[in-house]
Design goal:
CATH class of the largest domain: Alpha Beta
Order of helices and strands: EHEEHEHEHEHEHHEEEEEEEHHE
Shape: globular
Helix content: 25-40%
Distance between the termini: 43 Å
CATH topology of the largest domain: Dihydrodipicolinate Reductase, domain 2
Number of helices: 9
Structural class: alpha/beta
Largest sheet: 9 strands, mixed
Number of domains: 2
Mean pLDDT: 94
Strand content: 25-35%
Length: 339
């Protein structure tokens, strides 16, 4: 049994608690941390965010609760720390947890800056702790099974691909921290980076990027659109949180191959549809569960076995951070940026 402490009991902290408590029999949450005492008074698993969870009643009377992170680390009694805190805290909290002897799962993005990301990478290498980052699209059945189908070569090569995620403003975060670009890195680094990471995972590092952004008064980007430079295909992505509050949230992707078109759209049923050249369209069969479940299962299994089982490494997440920061640079300058 892998024992877990969750740091940060906002939207994503509750999401992770939901997975551990109801879907992973080899996981047990034994401690919770949040500087807000009221955030530790959890009665149900309703996240209040852009992806809903089961709002069933929850009894956490047996779980230790802390408002001081170092006290939790000192008292211990767990194997890993799951960090769901605001992005600007990721580097410091991750390093402190690893140096205290714990494995760490950290929500995306890895950090706000390359320097902070490198600090985490160095701590992983020094402490030899297991570490992974919540780039959940690498585990999401709709995305990963689409990738498997494309990689099989059945429909030829990709000629064009586009990725998109559209959202209302995430006003549900504590104190509105995610809307503060200095704390979250803005919509590009907090939301759009999901697609940035998957593009890098799918197609490798592009030669360069050209981005345009919707900028707010504080200089932060609330929506970004990027063209990626690849020699043999056209790849684009767009994402942000400027949609009206009645729109909600949606993520999608489109792949045009030599012999088929594949549409991935979470506003539709089925989520993934394959349109073969000269044939009838058909749904792509997908296993149950979402990316949150599979990424946490993978890491819990890794900790249980004492070895990394296909995790998103700190180095992987750092490369995606670098790429996203180059997109932000391009959007700010209005110029193409080489990678």
């Amino acid at each position: 049994m892998v024992k877990i402490a969750i740091a940060g009991m906002g939207f994503m902290g509750k999401m992770h608690l939901s997975v551990y408590s109801s879907k992973l029999p080899n996981a047990e949450v034994v401690a919770l941390f949040d500087v807000r005492k009221e955030a530790l008074d959890i009665r149900n698993l309703d996240t209040g965010g852009n992806i809903k969870t089961d709002a069933r009643p929850l009894n956490l009377s047996d779980i230790r609760k802390y408002t001081d992170f170092d006290t939790m680390l000192k008292e211990g009694g767990f194997d890993l720390v799951d960090i769901c805190l605001p992005t600007y805290l990721h580097a410091d909290i991750s390093v402190r947890a690893m140096e205290a002897g714990y494995h760490v799962f950290c929500e995306k993005p890895l950090a706000l800056t390359v320097e902070e990301g490198e600090r985490i990478v160095n701590a992983v290498n020094k402490t030899k702790r297991l570490f992974s980052v919540g780039h959940c699209l690498r585990y999401w059945p709709a995305y990963i099974n689409t990738k498997k189908l494309i990689d099989s070569g059945r429909f030829g090569k990709v000629r064009y691909a586009e990725f998109a995620r559209f959202s209302e403003a995430p006003v549900w975060t504590a104190g509105g921290w995610v809307m503060d670009g200095k704390k979250s890195g803005n919509a590009a680094l907090d939301l759009h980076i999901h697609d940035v990471d998957f593009i890098s995972f799918f197609f490798g590092r592009p030669e360069g990027v050209f981005s345009r952004g919707v900028f707010e008064k504080d200089g932060s980007i609330s929506h970004i659109a990027t063209s990626y430079s690849y020699e043999d295909k056209v790849v684009q992505s767009t994402g942000g949180w400027i949609c009206s509050d009645s729109f909600g949230f949606n993520m999608r992707a489109l792949f045009v191959l030599e012999l088929a078109t594949i549409e991935l759209d979470f506003s539709k049923k089925p989520v993934v549809t394959v349109y073969p050249q000269g044939g009838e369209r058909y749904p792509l069969e997908l296993p149950e569960g979402d990316g949150y479940y599979y990424e946490l299962k993978s890491f819990v299994d890794s900790v249980e076995k004492g070895e990394p089982l296909n995790p998103v490494s700190a180095e992987d997440a750092l490369e995606s951070l670098r790429l996203c920061l180059r997109e932000i640079e391009s959007a700010g300058s209005g110029r193409y940026v080489s990678i």
